[in-house]
Amino acid sequence: MVSPYFLRILCSCLLLCALSLAAGPYAHGEEVTEEKLKALFVVNVLGYVEWPGRPKQATYGVCMAASEELSSEVRSYIQLKGLDARVRLRNLDGNRDLEGCDVLFVENHAVRGENFLLREAREKRVLSVGGGDRFIEKGGIIHVYLRDKKLAFDISTKAAEAGRIKIDSRLLSLAKKVY
Question: Keyword Signal: yes or no (predicted)?
Answer without folding.
Answer: yes
